[in-house]
Amino acid sequence: MNPATDISARVLHELVTPEGVPLEVPLAPRATRATAFILDFLILTVAVIVVSVCAILAGGGQLAGGYFGAFAVLSGFFIRNFYFVFFELRWQGRTPGKRLLGLRVIDRGGGPLTAQAVFARNLVRDVELFLPLMVIFAQADIWPGAPAWARILCALWALILLCMPLLNRDRMRVGDLVAGTVVIAVPAVGLALDVAERPTPSWSRAVVSAIAFTDQQLAAYGIYELQILEEVLRGGDRLDGRPAMEQVATRIQRKIGWTGGWIDPEAFLAAYYAQLRGRLEKDMLFGKRREDKYAPR
Question: What is the mean pLDDT of residues 51-56?
Fold first, then answer.
């Protein structure tokens, strides 16, 4: 079993989505998160080695000096500094390592993961890890004649910062504290169980079938929001029943620009759920998978 999705070992983080729905999401296990980083670090290291080898071959067997040497140094710098930023921006909070192990970076308050947050959490990694390691293992180039106590202090600095996820409930490293993010475990994403056929009052079935949404209105949300909507319609234990339906229906109507007048919230949500599900299933047949509302349409 994937430890990232092992329900029995989950620690939950509570957030409120922009639609006003309170959710508890499972935090990424510390060991799984460390494994994901090691995988990413190995991929990053291999990429730097490949670039350096190519530069050596192109430079006639020499790396020091010349344009190819400069290219190798600059490429290594950009790969090391922008590997995490690139993938977390492109894959909505996931790197190859996180994706393999079912982890994802999200905004701690439930909002969208912004580019500023991604840059902040990853730039801090230099201070947390890379700079101390460079001083420890490459002190001859960075700090010639560095005394032993300096190496010991750098090792302690790196150790303390690496232990930060052990010292707080939400398992945040310094970069997460600075950026306002948290890393969660994400189960394999799939469409929610269909609740469109759940028992409903006879009067609402006619209303549900009569409600129609435009393609643009349905494009406002993705699979993640469909699953939240399913929880609302099922009246989950963490939700406040009818008031939650009214609140979510109002927020969806405001977001999609609904002009159809007042409709019973349960009937409105049931209709939107059924049509959103149909649209997502149709897109998936053509290889288009929109996991949440922040993903490109």
Answer: 80
Instruction: State whether residue 112 is helix, strand or coil.
Output: coil
Radius of gyration (Cα) for the chain, nearest Å? Answer: 24
Paired sense of beta strands 12-16 and 22-26, if any: antiparallel
User: How confident is residue 62, by pLDDT bands cut at 50, 70 and 90?
Assistant: low
Q: Which two tokens stand for residue 276?
A: 């959103």
Q: What phi and psi, each to the nearest 5 degrees, are found at residue 188? A: -55, 125
Would the CA dihedral through 283, 286, 291, 292 be positive or negative?
negative
Per-residue model confidence (pLDDT) at position 17: 63
Distance CA 238, CA 175 (A): 30
pTM: 0.61
The values of phi and psi at residue 89, to 5°, are -75, -40
Q: Is the separation of the CB atoms in 251 and 20 below 8 Å?
A: yes
Nearest to 68 by CA among 82, 53, 78, 89: 53
